Amino acid sequence: MGNFRSGVFIYQSLLFLFGLIVFLPPSVIQAQETEQNSAKTTDAGLPSLAATKDCLKESRSTECLDNLFREALRNHTTTDVLRLIERFEAEDPELRRDCHPVVHAIGRETFRLKGNIHDSFSACDQTCHSGCYHGSVERFLRGDDIYSASYKHPSQAELKQKATAACDANTPLRLRYQCLHGLGHAILFFAAYQLQSSLEVCDALGDDWSRSSCYGGVFMENVSNATNEKKNFSPTDYHAPCNQLADQYRRECYIMQTSRMMEMGLSTERMLQECAKAGAYRVPCTQSIGRDLANEARMGQPRSVAQKCELAQEDNRLACMRGAVYALLDNTWDGRYAMPLCAAFGNHSDSEDCLKMSIQYLRTVFEKPIEDIARDCSRHAANSPRCAELVVRQQTSGL
Asked: Per residue in 325-360, pLDDT tens?
């Protein structure tokens, strides 16, 4: 078809050059339209992989993705569309790496259709780091008119009022965390990337855990937003803005800070050296290294991640491991990426520590039954018989 289209283009150009006015045969027009449409949608009328990736490349990628999935969700459920993204993840490593903002868009449109966070969360799931939940909270804060010329960011008082009402304290921990984390993302966006005032909105929440979960979303948005000039960083200071903030914010800031260090060109070894300079925040900074490295494990390179964490010593090694494991489990709510990483550590004790972290996190944060975790061991850690033994040990010990 590519050669056919090229031939049509040359034919049209020649007609133009010779000043001829003709009409292409309907069959030619139909063939062109069919190919253009097929690039945007699948046979089921869902967005294609190519169209999804094209949106990510656009300067107005958020609006592009919103329009793409608004059309998709006219005739399909949120579950249908999330399963499509899971398939794209399996097919395409680039999309697997960059799918989080894609599912944010699915969440934004889901909230527009459902009208409340409870029903939106019921429709969403953990696909691509739970971005659907985060996007639902974004839409809750922003409403539907963000792309209009008259749109104005909400005031600090309005943000605080909405933030305190956003996340139901009675929902399961795993869902409440996603709501609070997504809230942090959205607050920074709607505060026009004013970091201090965004953190002060999170301060309006009622308990330390809720506030720190919200801070984490703020700092992740500061790192991950596509418009670099809006980021609150220094071109020369590897520790800014963390070292400029009050103590109550620094831990959550440092858990994201190595993403900035990586942008500035630092290797894992250099980041470990910088984290050593973070004083009381050395461990969360090193955990940030592991969180960043988790992408390599998702791309099929668990041994590479293990080797880099092995460069750290003692509690720093555990922190690096913890950052990678938590990020991988947050991505899927199962052991498909974390357990192979644990098996990739060269030292038996490191591997066992990694499995213990994974099992405990699945049990406590995701409230996953022991039987399901044991099945994860058989599926994803078949070469590590200790995995199943550790599951049984945690069950009998009541840990």
From this structure: 999 999 889 999 999 999 999 999 999 999 999 999
Give me the sign of the Cα torsion angle 239, 101, 107, 155.
Answer: positive
Rounded CA separation 153/338 (Å):
39
Helix/strand/coil for 19: coil
- The angle subtended at Cα 110 by Cα 105 and Cα 112, nearest 5°, is 100
167 φ, ψ to 5°? Answer: -115, 115
The yes-or-no verdict on residue 396 having pLDDT over 60 is yes
pTM to 2 decimal places: 0.73
Q: How far is CA 243 from each of CA 63, 215, 246, 248, rounded to the nearest angstrom?
A: 34, 15, 8, 12
Which token pair is 396? 């009998």
DSSP 336-367: TTHHHHHHH-SSHHHHHHHHHHHHHHHHHTS-
The predicted structure's pLDDT at residue 147: 55
Phi-psi domain of 38 (left: phi exceeds 0; alpha: psi -120 through 50; beta: other) = alpha
Contact of 212 with 220, CB cutoff 8 Å: no
- pLDDT score, position 382: 82
Q: Which of 196, 176, 183 is nearest to 248 (CA)?
A: 196
- The Cα 127–Cα 131 span in angstroms is 7
Q: Output the six-digit token pair for 339.
A: 């357990």
Q: Is 241 helix (H, G, I), strand (E, B) or coil?
A: coil
Q: Name the residue type at position 202.
A: C
Confirm if 126 and 97 have CB atoms less than 8 A apart: no
Q: Which parts of 184-262 are beta strand (E)?
A: none
Could you tell me the CA-to-CA distances from 168 to 99, 104, 131, 366 in Å, in that order? 27, 20, 18, 17
Residue 154 DSSP code: P
